[in-house]
Amino acid sequence: MGSWRDKTMVLFLWLSVIYVCKISAEFQRFEHPTKGDGTLRFLVVGDWGRKGEFNQSRVAFQMGRIGEELDIDFVVSTGDNFYDNGLKGEDDPNFLHSFANIYTANSLQKQWFSVLGNHDYRGDAVAQLSPFLRQMDSRWLCLRSFVVDAEIAELFFVDTTPFVDEYFSDPGEHKYDWRGVSPVDTYTAQVLNDLELALEESRARWKIVVGHHAIRSVGHHGDTQELVDQLLPILQANDVDLYVNGHDHCLERISDNKSPIQFLTSGAGSKAWRGDVDKSNKENLKFFYDGQGFMSVRLTQSDVEIIFYDVFGRVLHEWTTSKHQLHLEM
Ligand SMILES: *[C@@H]1O[C@H](CO)[C@@H](O)[C@H](O)[C@H]1NC(C)=O
After folding, report:
1. What CATH number is given for 30-328 in this structure?
2. CA of 264 to the centre of ligand 1 (A)
3. How is the chain split among helix, strand and coil, in percent rounded to 5?
């Protein structure tokens, strides 16, 4: 007992455990080859599933039109996919009424990459991750955290709902489906660890992180302090270019004051017009719109172009810059 041999053995076992954990914990990865012209184009919509109501259908129609114009590669959903309380199960007809039968335009028959929002966790969250939904509509792909390698860009999808303390400490009348998430501290630590690894390993020209909750927002919910504290430092340290989210039912762009990161909210897929803006939090706010709409992203090796549209497909805000310029400004 206690010989160097025992100690070496114990150390060896621990190292194996750590090694295995790192490997098995990696985010699932998907390759999405681009069209070969070196550009990437996609739409972003969030907070949408209301059976077409609250202008969801109008937003969907304009997404189809703009999607055609841009010849998009895929669509990103920033969560709160189904209101009010996610899906009831794999065979909930809301999947058809709020997704499959709404986004019917030709240009939207592309892969949809989705994360879960807090409202999705109020139903059967696991159902949204099910391959059964992918059989019903092959566009659908929703997972908790994963990576999409789209050649010039890598997109890192992060499950942000479990980070928000309030859902655990003060759930009110809501019931959350925390299956697969408990114990939550271990879960969130693992997510951050995996994200950091994936970002460090990334050789992509553009790094884009997608979550449901905002890091920075002047809208109804405001900043998500847990993400400011835990997620933002990892993004700042790893040359992330864009953080894209929903949650606040608005469209907005805010710049970071410590890095080139742009905080982009696209959470206006259906119900909007909350009318409350936190004026005290307006630092670096570049654009805010309280109504419905969506966002497009166009990337080349050198440039990024972000456009926000309203329910009529009108351009509300356009922001273009080069990677070079973005980093010069900091
Ligand atoms: C639908 O969009 C129009 C135009 O922005 C707006 O005036 C109207 O209030 C919206 N309807 C709902 C239910 O939000």
Report:
1. 3.60.21.10
2. 22
3. 30, 25, 45
Annotated binding-site positions: 47, 80, 83, 118, 212, 247, 249
Nearest of 218, 230, 214 to residue 117 by alpha carbon: 214
Q: State the pTM of this model.
A: 0.92
Q: What's the pLDDT score for residue 173? A: 95
Asked if residue 311 has its Cβ within 6 Å of ligand 1, the reply is yes
Q: Is the CB of 55 under 6 A from ligand 1?
A: yes
What is the model's pLDDT at position 322?
A: 96
83 within ligand 1 shell (Cβ under 6 A): no
Residue nearest to atom 7 of ligand 1 (CA): 291
Give residues with Cβ within 8 angstroms of 81, minimum separation 6.
48, 49, 98, 99, 114, 116, 117, 120, 128, 142
CA 59 to ligand 1 centroid distance, Å: 10
State if residue 188 touches ligand 1 by the CB under 6 angstroms criterion. no
3-class secondary-structure state, position 148: strand
How many CA atoms within 13 Å lie on the side-chain side of 301? 3
Q: How far is the CA of 273 from the centre of ligand 1 (A)?
A: 8
pLDDT computed for residue 35 by the predictor:
83
Residue 87, Ramachandran bin (φ over 0: left; ψ between -120 and 50: alpha; else beta) = beta
Other CB atoms within 10 A of residue 8 CB? 10
**Which pLDDT value is given to residue 233?**
98
Stretches where the chain sits below pLDDT 50 are 1, 20-24
Beta strand pairing call for 294-299 and 303-309? antiparallel
